[in-house]
Amino acid sequence: QVQLVESGGGLVQPGGSLRLSCAVSGRILSDSDMYWYRQAPGKQRELVGLIRTDTTTNYAGSVRGRFTISRDNAKNTVYLQMNNLQREDTAVYYCGGFGRWGQGTQVTVSS
Prior knowledge:
Radius of gyration: 13 Å
Strand content: over 45%
Distance between the termini: 40 Å
Structural class: mainly beta
Order of helices and strands: EEEEEEEEEEE
Oligomer: single chain
Shape: globular
Largest sheet: 7 strands, mixed
C-alpha cells in the first residue's frame, strides 16, 4: 500500500526558506506525477504545483518564482523548496500522488 510522508515544516520568518520532503513508500516514484497542495486556516485546499514523470513542472501564480518542486526517483522522494516565504504562505502542506495524500506538514511564516 502506498504511503506518503511529508516532513520539513516549521516556523520561519518572512523572507526565509524551507524545504519540504515527501517520502513515498510502497510504489515506485517515477510511475506518477506528484503534487503539492496547501490548506490555510479557514480556506480551501489549493494546488501549489506539480511535477510530472518527465520532471516538467507547473506552479500556482502565487508561488511561481519562489517555490521549486523537484524529485529524486532514486530516493523515492519529492521536494518543495520554498524561498522568500511570506505570511500568506502559512498553511498545512500536503503532497499527493498515486491517488493518495500524506498527513501534511505545518508551515508557519511569522516574525
